[in-house]
Write a structure and sequence with these properties.
The complex is a heterodimer. In chain A, 63% of the residues lie in helices and 2% in strands. Chain A has 6 helices and 1 strand. Chain A has helices spanning 13-24, 26-34, 36-42, 47-54, 58-63, 68-82; one strand spanning 88-89. The longest helix of chain A has 15 residues, at 68-82. Chain A is globular, with a radius of gyration of 13 Å. The model of chain A has no long low-confidence stretch (mean pLDDT 94). By secondary structure, chain B is of the alpha/beta class. Helix content of chain B is 34%, strand content 22%. Chain B contains 7 helices and 11 strands. Chain B has helices at 24-44, 91-103, 118-127, 150-165, 193-204, 216-221, 227-237, and strands at residues 5-9, 17-18, 48-54, 68-71, 75-80, 83-88, 109-111, 135-140, 171-176, 243-249, 254-260. Chain B has an 8-stranded mixed β-sheet with strand order 7-4-8-3-9-1-11-10, with helices on both faces. In chain B, strand 5 and strand 6 form a beta hairpin. The model of chain B has no long low-confidence stretch (mean pLDDT 96). Classes of the chains: A mainly alpha, B alpha/beta.
Chain lengths: 90, 264
């Protein structure tokens, strides 16, 4: 069985790079929230990656070679930005 | 100086920023264990807190994936949502660790320009004494295969201990990570708590050295890739019997707070 955290295939580099930007870069996150498809195209994502990310489909993203942790944290930070009032801050 | 304190702490961001999915009482129980660690840190009077943590692909990305790294900048900073952190780095100690670590055969990466990962600042948010102490961020690659082997992490911890023992500073060593969790995978809601409990029982018996014999495959299977940070600490802490201050398994994460009696 493939490990849960696997060697990132080179073919998935644009997707992983975009997920990294999405979780790390506020401007990219805001641009994505406003215009998801255009932002994904600007970052070189192909049809399969745009479809999986647009649908928020973790399993499809991981099957395409996305690093599971990047998928997870991109989602966390998008949720924090979209709905900050739903969190308790310590 | 010998180490003056050694702890392993969780860093899951839900402890800092709690979404409605998390049990509030559980989160507060982990906070209480953090508070005990802070109390002990103050009592140990360290000059510096060296934190061993895994990078969550926050600082380092696929442009370079260091197995073991040391931050040697003046200040280490990072941000998470509305939180902004910046810690002074103990540059003389950080630099000595790089220089002597490489001399000892560990081909360390160092950086003066890498964002601080939340694995460092979430535990420090709750445990850093006031006034704040300088830190030394020590990175272990845990999420991007191939990660360093557990035996290598243990050996690095042993080398680190020799370096620290020869220094004048009083050093508190903190491992940030774990226990079982599988973020971003289909195992997220089913961590391996049995692995955690067996591990904690063996650490309480002073059998930390056995972790060096774990394989990377076993860690991945148990949702414990981050245990590499603990194993590094165990290399430094030796066979001291661990005191488990809390073990709080949530629906997705085994939160463990552990102390080792290394102080003089």
């Amino acid at each position: 069985m493939e490990s849960h955290y696997f060697f990132p295939p080179a073919s998935a580099y644009p997707l992983n790079r975009f997920l990294f930007a999405l979780k790390s870069n506020t401007a990219v996150r805001e641009r994505y929230a406003a215009a998801p498809d255009a932002t994904m195209r600007e970052h070189g994502l192909d049809d399969a990656a745009r479809g999986a990310l647009g649908a928020g489909d973790r399993d499809r993203l991981v099957a395409l070679g996305a690093h599971p942790y990047l998928v997870f944290m991109a989602q966390v930070r998008l949720t924090m930005a979209r709905d900050p009032g739903s969190f308790e801050y310590f | 100086m010998p180490l003056v304190a050694a702890f392993a702490l969780p860093h899951t961001p839900q402890l800092l920023v709690r979404p409605p999915t998390e049990d509030r009482e559980l989160v507060l129980r982990v906070h209480a264990a953090y508070a005990e660690v802070k109390r002990r840190l103050v009592a140990a009077r360290p000059d510096v807190v060296a934190v061993i943590a895994g990078d969550h692909i926050e600082g380092f990305f696929l442009n370079a994936v260091p197995a073991l790294a040391v931050f040697v900048g003046a200040r280490a900073s990072g941000e998470f949502g509305r939180y902004r952190y910046a810690f002074d780095v103990h540059e003389p100690l950080a630099r000595t660790i790089v220089e002597q670590g490489i001399e000892a055969g560990f081909d360390l990466t160092y950086s003066q320009d890498v964002p601080l990962d939340y694995a460092f600042y979430v535990p420090l948010h709750f445990t850093m004494p006031e006034p704040r102490l300088p830190i030394v961020p020590l990175y272990v690659n845990v999420y991007l295969p191939p990660q360093p082997a557990p035996r290598r992490c243990y050996a690095w911890g042993q080398a680190l201990r020799r370096i620290l023992d020869a220094r004048p500073e009083r050093v508190a060593l903190v491992a940030s990570g774990g226990l079982s969790h599988f973020p971003g995978t289909d195992r997220y809601s089913s961590p391996d708590f049995d692995f955690d409990r067996a591990l904690l029982a063996s650490l309480a018996e002073g059998r930390g050295a056995e972790t060096a014999r774990l394989t990377g495959e076993e860690l991945d299977k148990a949702g414990n890739v981050e245990l590499r940070t603990w194993i590094t600490l165990l290399g430094a802490a030796g066979d001291a019997r661990a005191e488990v201050l809390c073990y709080e398994p949530s629906w997705h994460h085994g939160n463990a707070v552990v102390a080792w009696p290394v102080g003089a």
